[in-house]
Amino acid sequence: MTQAAISRETTSPPLFEQVADRIREMIDAGTLRAGDRVPSVRRLREQFRVSISTVLEAYRLLEDRGLIVAKPQSGHYVRSRPREPLAEPGRSRPVRRAKRIEEPLSMCIVSTLGDPTKVALGPAVPAHELLPSQALNRALGRVLRRAPLRCHQYDVPPGAIELRQQIARRMIDAGCSVSADDIVITNGATESVYLAIQSSTRPGDTVAVESPTYYGLLETLHALHLPVLPIASETRKGICLDALEEALKGGRVKAVVTIANFSNPTGHCMSDKRKRALVQLCAKHQVALIEDDIYGDLPHEGARPTAMKCFDADGGVLYCGSFSKTLTPGFRIGWCIPGRWQAEFERRKQMLNHMTPTATQLAIAEYLAGGGYDRHLRRMRRAYREQTLRMIDAVARHFPRGTKVTQPEGGHVLWIELDPRVDAMKLFEDAGRAGVSIAPGPVFAVHGEYRNCIRLNCGLPWSPRIDNAVQTLGRLVAEQMG
Ligand SMILES: Cc1ncc(COP(=O)(O)O)c(C=O)c1O
Questions:
Q1: What spacing in Å lies between the alpha carbon of 294 and ligand 1's midpoint?
Q2: Could you tell me the sign of the dihedral formed by the alpha carbons of 194, 200, 204, 206, in that order?
Q3: H or E element that contains 455
Q4: Quick check: helix, strand or coil at residue 392?
Q5: pLDDT tens track for 110-158
Q6: Of 31, 146, 156, 359, which has the most beta carbons under 10 Å away?
Q7: Gap from CA of 331 to ligand 1 centroid (Å)
Q8: Is the whole model's pTM more than 0.90, yes or no?
Q9: Quick one: which H or E segment has residue 108?
């Protein structure tokens, strides 16, 4: 990009158009790629010797052309620009029948966790580079020195008051005013959801879940021996309320579990209007609504989305949260706001394992009290945004035409619908042999649906190794299509 590239002849196009063209050329040549920050106003002004308003007009033109996007207080970024825009998957069509999960398929993904020989696009793990591990280590050291006796003794639910107070403060961002007394600390969101379901159902009750859904939830329902009814969901909208209402009329469903904010695996975020309608629908049918909000703190842009809990008028929502995706999965710290099931929830937590380790609870409380969490989240959100855009871009470049992909607005997973001829379980095997792990669609299904779908993890910092892995996947997909 040189000054000479800009012509001041009266017959030449306006200056702002020429500046915009130079940036477009850089995008076309791959010098600037999806997720990259466009050079700042100051840099462009100096480089082209134009005015600030010319640069701003050039930005505007590129925004109108859909090539870049402005991010408040951060700058302009290159948008994901596939060769041709990729469509998003439509409404899912799960089998409308409840079933006990006999054999969860998800063990195949778990077996790839921590395998250094594979590019980890399967498990939805955050990259350790993005976690504030050093700060957490220091906080852990401090609490162990300060309260050694307390850290080595038994405790009882609901858990450390210091942590519950910090969580209550953070829940304000999600639109909820709760007190520390409303919160019970758990071993991650997994235990929170497990106990929430167990506390609000009886043996034999049916649990409705959006489909596709997080495979760990299906494992939990397998462990609880409860029949599971998959409910259709729609990209960008979440669980289909019409399908759910129909199911609730049957009277067998006693609990609904949803991931309303940046669902795993589809990444959708429900609007406030639909969240409120869902809470009201469950209240009308006297059905517990279990909200897994593990990704709520990770919007790519803008404010944190609300929790459904904030629309809860009668304690019918059991809110489940965790620090596994934002701070550390290894400390195993989650929580529940169980509403009217709180006494039962605490009783079951006590029976299951008495307590969550005090040292890690206090370390996270100490970290949160230190005030660095919001700064850390801003960094993490930026990274996930960029990595997700790059992944979409790579899928657009390497996968066959007709591939459909979600455009998540938060979190770090992508859901991809492939040609119907593609068998995701075979792709999982072939990709594994080629050194790439993926999450095949059927692990997110109750009845083995989504055979031609996969989920990719965008949690890892972008690198040529990941681009090569996506290229390998694209080739294997094309081979299956013949
Ligand atoms: C939607 C969802 N819920 C729960 C979990 C598990 O959370 P935790 O590690 O806190 O038990 C995950 C992990 O991937 C998840 O994606």
A1: 6
A2: negative
A3: strand 453-457
A4: helix
A5: 777 778 889 999 999 888 999 999 999 999 999 999 999 999 999 999 9
A6: 359
A7: 13
A8: no
A9: helix 107-110
